[in-house]
Design goal:
Layout (H helix, E strand, L loop, with lengths): L1 E3 L2 E3 L7 E2 L2 E2 L18 H16 L5 H14 L2 H29 L16 E2 L8
Antiparallel strand pairs: 1-2, 2-5, 3-4
Helix pairs in contact: 1-2, 1-3
């Protein structure tokens, strides 16, 4: 690695550094994005009641509103929850069908896991006492 002030770069012959990410890591593909997973029953409920809760608590932050909605979700009866769970199951079936169609046209969906640290990124190091 080449030492440059307090920054240390990992060398790579065919890679350009951009804010800690490399151009080589990005895929340039004409493949459209795969279908998104359906919302859970709770998030379907949250979508429906969010504006009402926000109007009732105008000065609350979004995180506080979510806590309020979560408490309401825990307190509603099973029949009300069942409505959202059935809606989730319908959305899930639609999602599974769209995944099958997508995979028939474009191949299997690759699930990428986020890594904690990329090997091709900036490494911040403090200068050693010998360098002063």
């Amino acid at each position: 690695a080449e030492y440059m002030g307090i920054y240390q770069y990992q060398k790579s012959s065919n890679t350009k550094y951009i804010m800690g990410r490399t151009k080589a890591n990005k895929e340039n593909s004409d493949k459209p994005a795969p279908p998104k997973r359906p919302l859970s029953a709770f998030f379907l409920y949250k979508q429906e009641v969010y504006e009402k809760v926000k109007q009732a608590n105008p000065s609350s932050k979004m995180t506080d509103l979510t806590k309020i909605i979560s408490n309401q979700w825990q307190e509603i009866d099973e029949d009300s929850k069942k409505k959202y769970e059935e809606l989730h199951q319908e959305k899930k079936k639609e999602y599974e069908e769209s995944v099958r169609e997508y995979e028939d046209k474009h191949g299997k969906i690759e699930r990428k896991r986020k890594s904690k640290k990329s090997k091709d990124c900036l490494l911040y190091t403090s200068p050693s006492p010998r360098d002063s």
